[in-house]
Amino acid sequence: MDIGEEAGNRIDAIAGRKAFLDGAETQVLGWSQDYLGPTLRMRRGRGARITVGNRLEQGITAHWHGLHVPGWQDGGPHSVIAPGRELEQTLEIDQPAGTYWYHSHVHGRTGEQVYHGLAGLLLIDDSEAADAGLPSDYGVDDIPMIVQDRSFSRRGELRYDDDGMALMQGFRGDRVLVNGAPTPVAGVPAGMVRLRLLNGSNSRVYRFRFADGRAFHHVAGDAGLLPAPLRRTEIQLAPAERAEIVVDFANGHPARLVSADVPMPMMGGGMMGRGGMMGGMMSGNSEASDGSDVFEVARFEVDPGRAARVATLPATLAGAPRPDFGEPLRRRSFRLDMMMGMGMMGAMFGGKPDLGINGKSYEMDRIDQQLRLGETEIWEISADMMAHPFHVHGTSFQVMSRNGRAVDHAETGLKDVVWVDGTAEILIRFDQPARPDAPYMYHCHILEHEDAGMMGQFTVS
């Protein structure tokens, strides 16, 4: 859906039923369709006018994940759309071309609502990136891939649990879906193909590679193009992270995109994952013959009827953002706390511990930080027990270091999610305001952690 300034652009949160496995239907949610939502396309330098309606019996929000919009348009927990109501917005788009997304963000129900389908892709086009030399025929050589893990009962019904140990590690399913389909097969042209990967899972971390070992080029991250294509053989994405990769299918051979089952590192050397204390292998998709924890994500078959428009990639990518944050004026520290309230032992016996940041669990009527518009800061984020994906609303940032080691901007590009396994430093600035009645959020993007209180909020003025 191409969103411009004209009226008539609309998405509605609706309930429906969908058959994922063997024709067995299960109850799901979606944006104007039975599961997930249409891809929304917006253009830099133009207003995007859209109406969001709620046809459910529960409140929802529409959070524009990664967009640089004021707090009252961001779609956080303070912007609930009640059942039967709608919200009309005009979003002023002024940020680089990239792959973003949208999802509901109701406090305490984000995990459940996103899991059942209230999510979709959002693409921004920028005239400065029009000549980047990348595949751009959407659906032909430019393919969206929302990757999610889900769990099903024997009757094919979606199962979701946010209690006990599922809360502590985040809920992890045993089957992988791409755009709502289990292990899909995509027809691709015999040439360069762009895959827009979104980790839309509640908590699972993916380490993508191709089963035949073929290399690909990483061309974009969370918030725009990289300065130049990077040749890789695997790429890791935590929840809510995005990556655009370009794969060459010119040899005509089919290919399988697979992922390792990534355990969640814990302080003290333990693991949350297979072989550790919490399990979570993709039993429904496991296909490795060597016994390793590898599962299939998608298959690609060359279709002679599809034309490849790109044969080679440029040495540099036009339209890649060149960040200039200026000198930081202050430093802030954020500690992601797992051992608050009843802690892990309580969770093991079915309790609901309060998780938090800097010793405080989230409260909607408390402002945790007050920032100044246009001022650059360094944020240091630390994890006290396990690794977490840390997301900040309303801006994009540059990752400076992880565990004391400098990070090259050319390898990550601008980000809005940073994987924190120990400590991470980010350089950040806000150029949009956020009021106390509609603040921005920072939080762990393991959705069960966010719902349990690992979230804070801040104003910008």
UniProtKB/TrEMBL annotation:
Q: Which residues cross the membrane?
A: none
List, for all copies, the residue spans of the domain called Plastocyanin-like.
20-128, 352-460
Q: Does the keyword Oxidoreductase apply?
A: yes
The molecule here is called: Cupredoxin
| Entry superkingdom | Bacteria
Q: Which UniProt keywords apply?
A: Metal-binding, Oxidoreductase
Give the species this sequence originates from: Limimaricola cinnabarinus
A single GO molecular function term of this UniProt record: oxidoreductase activity
InterPro entries named among the record's database cross-references: Cu-oxidase-like_N, Cu-oxidase_C, Cu-oxidase_fam, Cu_oxidase_Cu_BS, Cupredoxin
